[in-house]
Amino acid sequence: MNEIARPDPDALLAQLRADEERARRGKLRIYFGASAGVGKTWAMLSAAQREHAAGRDVVIGVVETHGRSETAALLAGLETLPLRDVAYRGRTLAEFDLDAALARKPAVLLVDELAHSNAAGSRHAKRWQDVQELLAAGIEVWSALNVQHLESLNGTVGAITGVRVHETVPDTVLDEADEVVLVDVTADELTARLAAGKVYIPQQADRAAQNFFRKGNLIALREIALRRTAEHVEDDVRGWRIEQSGRQGEVGPPAWNTSGALLACVGPHEGAGQTVRTAARLAGQLNVRWHAAYVETPRLQRLDAPQRDRILGVLKLAEELGAETAVLTGVDVAEELAAQAQRLNCATLVVGRAEPARGWQRWWPQRVLTRELARHAPGIDIVEVARADSSRRIAQARPGGRRGDPEVEDSDRPHARWPGYAWAAASSVAITLLAAPLVGVLELANMVMLFLLGVVGVAMRFGRGPAAFAATLNVAAFDFFFVSPRFSFAVSDAQYVVTFAVMLGVGLLVGQLTAGLRFAAGVSTSRERRAQSLFELTRELSAALETNQVVALGAAAVQGHFGGHALVLVPDASDRLVMPTQPPPGFDASVADWTFRQGQPAGLATATLAAQPWHYVPLKAPMRVRGVLALEPAQPRWLMIPEQAQQLDTLARQIAIALERVHYVDVAQQAVVEMESERLRNALLGAISHDVRTPLTALIALAESLQALPEAPGDQRHIARAIVAQAHQLHALVSNLLDMARLESGIAGGAVNLRREWQSVEEVVGSAIRAARPALGDMAVQTALPAELPLVEFDAVLIERVLVNLLENAVKYGAPPIEVGARATERALALSVRDHGRGLPAALHGREQTLFDKFTRGQAESATPGVGLGLAICKAVVSAHGGEIAAANAAGGGAEFTVTLPRREPPEPAESSDLAA
Question: For strand 108-111 and strand 58-62, is the pairing parallel, antiparallel, or unpaired?
Fold first, then answer.
């Protein structure tokens, strides 16, 4: 019998969290077209007019009409946000005002030209990043996009049209859009629009018709747009099937895609960007995850700074397109890539096509990467990507450091190599001078060992190139100074030719192996350093018990690993970041606050405010963001290396978890202290109340006896009556203390003995008014009790005490008349006591529940007697019954207290029957 498949609890929890996040996030609608002029902006504005007519709050953030009158006419009636003026190279540019849009927060915001590049100095480099922040704020955004602006299609479109497009949008933006509206026209219709001047002005139209807007180009772009839209629809269908398959009771198998992942191989050549774009497009079509990896060999480690920056830029592009990136180290590129593919369970390797050999290299045997990969990983498919010369050039990933910082600037310059070669020449001269006196003492074979030892030393210190140079010099020196005939390169014995060849070969081989060992040792040292810094931080944070300790340890660990300066910023009690009193140079408090509020990195080496010299990372703990880590690294390029970026994220996560742990330790300690204080206070109140009650009862009896003496003078009787009144007030206070202690102990886990019985509300209200008559005096009390009030189950004595306390409170702080009302609903009984005085103090607005705390009074300084226990007792009694009590200002003046008690239908009365005889 087949067992019914049960849903995975973790999957359900993840789905609930995703649904909650999706509910908070705004929706994105993209009007997608093959090229400019198809009518995307016109269609977007037409839909906006329809929504505005239906009553939705539609606002235009920025719309480009391109001088088209029919498009501009659709702006009528729609609110438009003013643009922001930005100074750029002596000109003033009008840019979209992101802060104004966030402050306005409309239901729908129109942001045209999704691929637009913002002016320098803007918060984000690209407009699509502005849209992401708007969506995170819960604003629905409509935008427009052309197919040539998709990053993965950049090379393909460039090859078709011959035009290099520089403004691009990551494919993930289109993939994650909630709605994609395809705006499509035929190539002939678009050409007619262009000729009619509906796309560009006449001068631009003629030039565009001869270049980009050729009919063949338009047909190809239309096909690509249709295919890309179909892929998005297919993703929607697949997502719906996955959602349906996760429901309980479904019989069919889940619609998960089980295809293997992709691994894009990033190399140092110019076509690496096209390799990454192709891998992203394949991953999207196959609906699989994908990775990108770059293997740094000893030879590639010697690349100059611009080439290394271009490689890091390609890895950054891969991350923007949704890949997980890694920088591997090793001697054999194919072996490292194959091992990485197997670790990640990748089914396909995507590699760029090798450049054709030129010059003499055509006659030299070349290692082909695809063949080497096939040999190391025969079970993995290999896809070779052609070069695309028309694709945009990848910007060099060079995060800016401070000008004039010698440490940063020196790290960007290529290291000089001549000292290694100079030391190689010096070592050859030194060995020659050392071996010269030993001629005739040592055999030539032993002298060869001295020269080989010099090669090993140079290789260990300076690497492969100087070692090869040293091996060549040593062979020449050995031949010139020690082989007959001496001081000549002539060789009398042909056997020495073999010696020279073996000596040179062994020297080169030893140098190669030693340099490789040096490279591997450097890699191991770097990995050990990262692991050691993480271990030390984790060990020290485990012993930290205060927030200040975590802040100091975290900043010291990050600064010790990355150099430069580091700050750990935490919020105060009002959830605002505490900024340093003396900010270091370049630190921007507004960027740190934005990072804390948005929960996203900003500053150096990010897409948000990238011109900042500091890098800001949110400290994300499992529950919430606990602060911000600000870093000004000694070498900004480190932040572009995936391993270093992951190390920084790991350090930030450890600091965040430690901050959250310390926070909850403080909360737990505070809760224990409050519980112990409350227990001690209740015990003290109970003890004092019991000790005071006996003499107080005797005092009341004596005062009443003195008042009843017939022979007592009038003034003594007046004093006796005053003593009795004050003693009764003190007795009421002691009774309140005892009741409060008993009720609090019951709520805390003791036994509150509620004598629940079916009671008449009218009788309990009347009894409460009679009991409160000494306090009421001649004050009138009006009742509004419907005749159809049902019986309600509660403790009559305690509820009467609640009403008495509320009536006495109305007498003390209110004004007549006092109204007592009641009404019943299907599941609750509501009792209300209202006066017609000044109402609740303005200081309690929004904090009305604090009136029911112990020893709390409406006015701190008041001549009205009392200690603030009456309302606290009311709340304790009502809570013991499972109800609620609330206070508010009544309409027309005065304060109104409402008690809500749960109720159920009373039992049917038993019918009497005669017994048969």
Answer: parallel
Look up residue 195 and give its amino acid: A
Q: Tell me what percent of the chain is helix, strand and coil, each rounded to the nearest 5.
A: 50, 15, 35
Answer yes or no: are the C-beta atoms of 616 and 592 closer than 8 Å.
Answer: yes
Express each pLDDT in 78-93 by its tens digit: 999 999 888 877 788 8
**E strand or H helix at 878:** helix 870-880
Residue of 847, 876, 878, 843 whose CA lies nearest to 859: 843
pLDDT tens for 398-431 read 555 443 333 333 344 445 567 878 888 888 888 8
Q: What is the pTM of this model?
A: 0.62
If one counts every other C-beta atom within 10 angstroms of the C-beta of residue 309, the result is: 19
> Mean pLDDT score of the chain, rounded to an integer?
79
Q: Is 77 strand, coil or helix?
A: coil
pLDDT on residue 3: 46
Rounded to whole angstroms, how far apart are CA atoms 579 and 537?
Answer: 23
* Beta carbons within 8 Å of 186's beta carbon, 6+ residues apart: 222
Asked if 550 and 658 touch (Cβ cutoff 8 Å), the reply is: yes
Kindly report, residue by residue over 287-338, the tens digit of the pLDDT.
888 999 988 877 766 677 677 778 888 888 888 888 888 888 887 888 889 9
Residues 6+ apart with CB under 8 A from 891: none
What is the torsional sign of CA 486, 488, 492, 498?
positive
Could you give the CA distance from residue 813 to residue 805 in angstroms, rounded to a whole number? 12
Cα 573 to the chain's mean position, in Å?
Answer: 21
* Helical ranges in 492-641 per DSSP H: 495-542, 547-562, 589-598
Q: Which pair of tokens denotes residue 104?
A: 């306005």
Q: Is 92 helix (H, G, I), strand (E, B) or coil?
A: strand
Enumerate the β-bridge partners of residue 181: 31
Tell me how far apart the alpha carbons of residues 447 and 286 are, in angstroms, rounded to a whole number. Answer: 64
> How many Å apart are CA 117 and CA 495, to the nearest integer?
71
Q: Give me the pLDDT at residue 466, please.
A: 82
Q: In what order do the strands lie in the sheet with 79-80?
A: 79-80, 58-62, 108-111, 140-146, 28-33, 179-182
- The answer to which of 63-67, 411-415, 508-512, 799-803 has the lowest mean pLDDT is 411-415
